[in-house]
Amino acid sequence: MSIRGMQRKTKERIAIGVCFFLTGVCFSTWASRIPTIKDSFYLNEAELGNLLLVMPITALVGLPVSGWLVSKYNTRGPLLVSFFIFSMSLYGIGVSKYLWHLILSLMGFSFSLRLINIAMNTQAITLQKAFEKKINGAFHGFWSLGGIFGLIISTFMIKFTIDIRVHLGIISVLTIGSISFAHKYLLRNDKPKTGNKLILGKPDALVLYLGLVVFLAAICEGGIYDWNGVYFKEVVKTELFTAGYLSFMICMTISRFLSDLIIAKIGFEKTFIISSLLIIIGIGTAIVIPSFWPALIGFCISGFGVSTLFPMAFTLCGNSEKYAPGVVISIISTYSIVGMLIGPPLIGYVAYILNLRSSFIIFLICGIMLILIAKMLFLIEKPSTYEP
Fold it and tell me: What's the pTM value of the predicted model, to 2 decimals?
């Protein structure tokens, strides 16, 4: 490849990384403010669980639209429009005075997030083909890095009692400004010529098992995002309730930047198994010893475990012989959305019936199931596809 070609690919890689980073910033900003919203609207655990249902239901309803966009357009334009809606919806969450206003803002936030995830992951998989070494894990590392950045800002805002409207407004403006600059360097003409339509019939085995992986991963990752702060505030009994979320995100970020190297050394299958075990060990620690430092260490360990699941699943989307990467991403994203639909509200309902500490056993069950699904996944595929 020529020097000019490498420079172009480097700029495209940075631009895609910016998309992942900004998405992480906005999502962690929303998640870190869930306890604030819970208190502002006087919601109990079950009512908060109902509110959290809005996002996955909206994303699920948006499946036909996202599928149509994937098959009809390149990803660059929809990505820019989606980021604008995403940012304005985040600001809408902050200024909501009535529950119906909050619900509408969450709907816009969720729908645009689905489009962003499909578009930027399609860009990442397409660019991966231009590199010999694995780079997709690092993109998800930028998502987590953005999450840490958002959490640091959130911790500062909460500590100094900065109004949520000011907080979310600042993040929205920074996001719109950043994506407006970065989008001109994104990949152009990345729409595949084949595999753009969903074919009804016998499910593709690879897509099915990848879907189950992201379904379970979404229950763990989404549930921990949404309930981590509440767990530290109400179970661990600490006012600095962003501490657990921050430690979780830091460990996820470190692991995701190292994931490409780890996979190259030991392969996808072993990485899947180790990741699942770390979820079990980490969450188990936080449940058994719900005091500050053990819980903090537990969420760190679980962060290392959860971190690799989505990057590996999205990377393997490019191996489908039946569908183009964007279509596979759209399909397995639906599994992810169902996981988000079931996970966080289920935690709320179980916490309401029993208690929040007991409800986190759900994550242990998911960790065990992930081991079984991973074993099934690599039984149906050729080992050479996944070995380093």
Answer: 0.80
